[in-house]
Design brief:
heterodimer, A: 451 residues, alpha/beta, 6-stranded mixed beta sheet, 19 helices, globular, B: 285 residues, 3 domains, 14 helices, 50% helix, 14% strand, CbbQ/NirQ/NorQ/GpvN (chain B), MoxR-like ATPase (chain B), ATP hydrolysis activity (chain B)
Chain lengths: 451, 285
Amino acid sequence: MTAVADRITGLAAALRAHGVRIGTGETVDAARAVEALGLADRELLREGLAATLLHGPGQRALFDAVFDLYFPRGIGGPEDAPRDRETLRDRLAEALAADDRALMARLAAEAVDGLGGYGSSPASDGWSAYQTLDRLRPQTLLARVRADIRGRAGGPGAGFADRLLDDEIRHRIEEFRRLVGAEARRRVAERRGRDEIARRAVRPTADRVDFLIADRDQLTELRRAVQPLARKLATRLAARRRRAARGTIDLRRTLRSSLSTGGVPMRPVLRRRRPVRPELVLLCDVSGSVSGFSDFTMLLVQALHDQFGKVRVFAFVNRLDEVTGLLGHGRADPDGLSARIRAEAVLTGWHGSSDYGVALGEFTERYGAAVGPRTTVFVLGDARTNMSDPNLPAVRELARRARRVHWLNPEPRDRWGTGDSAAPAYAELVRMHECRTARQLSALVAGLLPV
Amino acid sequence: MFTSVDDVSARLAGTGYLASPAVATTVFLAARLGKPLLVEGPAGVGKTELAKAVAQVTAARLVRLQCYEGVDESRALYEWNHAKQLLRISAGRDESWDETRTDIFSEEFLLPRPLLTAIRGEEPTVLLIDETDKADVEMEGLLLEVLSDFQITVPELGTVTATRRPFVVLTSNAGRELSEALRRRCLFLHIGFPEEELERRIVRLKVPGLGEALTASVVRVVGALRAMDLRKLPSVAETLDWARTLLALGADTLDENLVRDTLGVILKHQDDIQKAAAKLDLDAL
């Protein structure tokens, strides 16, 4: 049983390294779950450990990948497998057509074994999912699988649901790619040690991915997380508001009421707060380099709009335009957002690279009235001016007029000021915060948003 | 309570609740480890039904606490029956105060609310705390004592400890983030939309009149809708509604017109309907 206990603690440690909060109590529960379930059925074990170790749905994908490393399906490669690419493709096409998950998993193992190996010396060799998929090219099987399924169903037009076929096949191929990735990780882990692979090669949960290097899938995943995140933040804001509502001591009125007790302030009078909902202005750099970050933040703020009296959103590259209307409720198709902003707003002048100086100047000039003493301004961008004038007076003016100005920079702090970054200059005028992941962003938003 | 995971699935299926392996495993563990079960998931995937089914198969009494904004101690734990206490005081005029006082704070004047009822019960009990996310944060603090030690402290009577631990199911729609402390005390189960195969079985079980081929098509279309980016994704409840509608219309295959006319059964927002119609290549509405 000690070997199993080691596995469980190793699994818990790997999950903790990815930011899942697991206490000793949960690990003990996990061990009791293993005891109750036995080790015979791997899928039951997976569900049992997930139920005891996890606390939320967002961690499940991470858990599955780590679980596959600590409780692998088998050891070594499959035996007597044909190493030939064409046979593999034929069998894969059949498995995809029949939607046979078990066969797909076996084929993934064979594919990695046959096509994914690289290197020859024990120190440098390994298994690559990328190489496997590149050689096998499962995505090119789409037409063939479709024809196969149609043929089996008895000619075309086998019903309305037929038009969904392409998407379903794509989905299955995606599943196969995932299987290949998991299999390659398992084989590498056999060679290099589980703990290291679990820390390095498993994709972190979406909220811990760096905005600047997130790929398309991760950004899509992030956008889906906007609503739950907004709900969470709304809860926190409400709690802060409740605390703030109790307010500070109103000295004048405390003294006034102390007259009735002979000048001894028996009962402190608290300052009453007028429930004024704060206003928010967002200035977003939407140029290619940081657009993933800006998109996400815009959607998040829009999802939080009922927490504020007024939210106005401006986008810029080297010219600036208001895009509040484009984010409106019901119109927000998150996936097409940046395309729509680019199509419907005037954001670029003579060239296509971002220019903070001109854009900020244009803001104070044209929309200066949007900023008043009740407004909190968030500027989103990496402060890379492409060598042009950073226009510090405009920022100074903004900081003077607004209640608070915060600058959220998606670049790591140690890169501020390198190359064409004007971050240090701006940071002297307004508060600049490093904001690289959705997790950092939500912490910042929860702490910085006015209540 | 249960002997194995298969036992859970088989017995739940006997009541008409088809459980996925994840659901069966977690229910089994919750019963075996004696921990509360926190069930999250979109509306209409059968979170509440799960508690009811478990109560039915274990022949337990179902005690339900429906949470709502502002639910408090006197609605969840217990309350003193003030009117009756007053009657008692005025009835016993010639008694000393001490006698009266010990008497009016006795069992007879206690109104047990769901949590106390479940804890005190002698018979097997399933306690369902429904829509926990609707309750205020203060309520969660109240639940902590109940869920970790299965005891409730009534100042006048002392601490009531469960003689027989109830099987506790908490459900949440994630309308509000539950506190980490509460999550920690529970086994976590996320019921998502079911796999295609399971959903087919569910439809066949609940709407037996619908043909095999049509059932398969219905489930496939709903699956495709769930992959889209809609405001409200169709849940199992919507799938069943749609299946019943199609049955009532006497349809035997899905076609464009039929889908277009009945899309309102599965999708609840006009923009969702338009978006889905565009993606499914239906003609403009």
